[in-house]
Amino acid sequence: xxxxxxxIHQQWSIMGLWYRLVDALxxxxxxxxxxxxxxxxxxxxxxxAAALAIIAYYLVAELGGLHRSWRGxxxxxxxxxxxxxxxxALFVLLATxxxxxxxxxxxxxSMTVWCLATPILVVAARVGTRRLQRxxxxxxxxxxxxxxxGVTELGFQLARNIEASPEMGLTLVGFFDDRPEDRNPDIPxxxxxxxxxxxxxxxxxxxxxxxxIYITFPMRAEERIRGVLDKLGDTTASVYVVPDFFxxxxxxxxxxxxxxxxxxxxxENPFYGIDGLAKRLSDLLFGGILLALAAVPMTVIALLIxxxxxxPIFFRQRRYGLDGREIRVWKFRTMTVCEDGPQxxxxxxxxxxxxxxxxxxxxxxLDELPQLFNVLxxxxxxVGPRPHPHALNEEFRTQITGYMLRxxxxxxxxxxxQVNGWRGETDSPEKMFKRIEFDHRYICExxxxxxxxxxxxxxxxVISGRNAY
Length: 469
Description:
There is one protein chain. By secondary structure, the protein is an alpha/beta fold. It has helices at 14-35, 43-64, 75-100, 108-138, 153-163, 198-206, 222-232, 274-308, 356-364, 371-377, 390-396, 429-445, 448-464; strands spanning 144-149, 170-176, 194-196, 212-215, 238-241, 255-258, 261-264, 314-320, 326-332, 381-383, 412-414. The chain has 3 domains: 14-138, no CATH class; 144-247, NAD(P)-binding Rossmann-like Domain (Rossmann fold, 3-Layer(aba) Sandwich), CATH 3.40.50.720; 274-464, no CATH class. Helices cover 48% and strands 11% of the residues.
């Protein structure tokens, strides 16, 4: 076997270098457009501003992985990453200008044009790069032929993913497997064909008719994988092993490495890098706007609670937050009691503990408005799995597999489960199971657009008043 360090090394990407160069040129071009014919200060100040903007942009881009390969990733996510990165760079630039007291030396109109022109140019460059890649690939530039070892469901999914990513420039030769036809699942007609056995593949690779090979055997078939690798070692084809991690209940998995040793997360927080920044900034922006709009109604509600029943205006209940850490969730008091113990009872239809005003607040979900304070202080998000009382957590974490994984993200004021009919009392394991199923789906499929859709649907759910009591 080969000697040396057992590490997997990341290759420097030509596209990464291209993105870095183009982004810097777009920042400079945006500034030139902004100050064209309107030099209100010395050229040195603009040069310094451009240099600081590029440095700040690069730092945020490296932290958020903006200069990595975007093959197989939607253009929408790439554009979102660009916009968030430029917003952070502008924040750094403005903070520096205020700290050094240089804001008066720049034209506000020019700086506004720069702030708007640069992201437009960067996004246009990214979209243009994608289209250029596709044109070159259609013309045959750097197209490669690939084969899949293993007639498996994982192999079918891989073929579909590659087909949906034409910018990768890969053309499928076929599936290769030594097992008899009656032991293999049927290959979908739109994916390709069973092209032969492993010796057939080796012959194809030796003749240079296959450039890249993906092995999709299950991880338990270690001996089969080793055997295939030994045979393919006599070719010059690039060989990849595709691990079948999908046999596990993956929760937004991602690759990382420890000094070159690769590891893959099975249960992971999806809000990493640019995504985490986008999620937090959207919470601060929309949470602040909603709180400003709700300030007067919240004041009126507080006065009404104080006048109509004895007890505190607010009720702070212990809940599980991010990573299972305890948080205190704010709510308007809607009951004659403030239960927060190990035997807390869920509110039921026509619950005698609910005050008359409380019934209205719960029906309209206005009792949840104080949780905007939780959003602004960072203990909650506008959208996420709804936080449960400690008593419910301890009851169901032993009954539902993966229950606690919902705490890999911040709890939300509203969530995917709530807008899909699983709002209100969970008086049976079946109801809680469906809620957890949607919570897991939210974590796996999260996007900023999904948050927006959930917020819009929440308004309709609140108006209907379904399962609210």
